[in-house]
Amino acid sequence: MVKVARPLPPELLPQLSIRHLDAIEPRLNLEHSEISGLDLSRQTLQRSDVSGVRLNSPVLSSARIQQSSWLNVEVLTAEGAGLYGDSCVLTRILFERSRLTGLILSGSQLTDVSFTGCKLDLANIRAAHLKRVRFERCELMGADFSSANLSDVSFEHCNLTGIDVTNMTSKSVDMRGCEVLSPKGIGGLRGVTLTSLQLLSLTPWLAQELGIKIEDE
Fold first, then answer.
1. N or C: which end of the chain has fewer CB within 10 A?
2. Alpha carbons 130 and 153: distance in angstroms, whole number
3. Cα–Cα distance measured from residue 94 to residue 8, given in angstroms and rounded to the nearest whole number
4. CB 186 within 8 A of CB 166
5. Which residues neighbour 14 within 8 Å (Cβ) at sequence distance 6 or greater?
């Protein structure tokens, strides 16, 4: 049986200072705070540092946070469609009940990250490195994991229809219990744990990948 290590949860102080930000600087630096309703939509915040922070209902739509470092952060009920986080370092992060359609984390490093009840359709996780990452009850239709490196990653009750796994590499990756149909680059599922029923449902795409013609007399 496959054993997938669980991500470590964020470590936050028992008492966080409550902050209200009226102005956002181009380089955002936050620590040991709890912030509600933070609006970063369409702002450019490259190389920001966020540590020990809880964000309640932030608006992150189309924000650009590439090359940023986030450590021990909880992001709850975010509106983050189109969030651009290319080449970020995310460590011990929780995203919960958040809309992250079209999220871009290409080339990023994700360690001990959990996505729970999130909408991640069309997410771009291309060439990212994922270690101890958990997707639970997430919508990942059309997400791009091409050339990504996954280690100790679990997908639980997720919709993975149409995901791109071209040249994806996997070690201890579990997709059992998920809907996995119409994948692109199905050879990238090498090393992923699936059920026999899931494997049967993937027969047409496996046959296409191997050049097998299926004809019934």
1. C
2. 7
3. 10
4. no
5. none
User: Residue 182 has which token pair?
Assistant: 């119409």
In this model, does residue 131 exceed pLDDT 90? yes
Nearest to 103 by CA among 88, 78, 122: 122
Domain 24-206, CATH = 2.160.20.80
Digit-coded pLDDT (tens) for 179-193: 999 999 999 999 999
Length of the chain measured in residues: 217
Which of helix, strand or coil describes residue 186? Answer: helix
Q: How far are the Cα atoms of 37, 129, 203 from residue 105, in angstroms, in the given order?
A: 23, 10, 30
Question: CA 26, CA 47: separation in Å to the nearest integer?
Answer: 9
User: Cα(66)–Cα(70) distance, rounded to whole angstroms?
Assistant: 11
What pLDDT, in 10s, does the model give residues 78-129?
999 999 999 999 999 999 999 999 999 999 999 999 999 999 999 999 999 9
State the pTM of this model.
Answer: 0.93
Two tokens, residue 120: 């991640």
Round the average pLDDT of the chain to a whole number and report it: 93
Give the chain's radius of gyration (CA, Å): 18
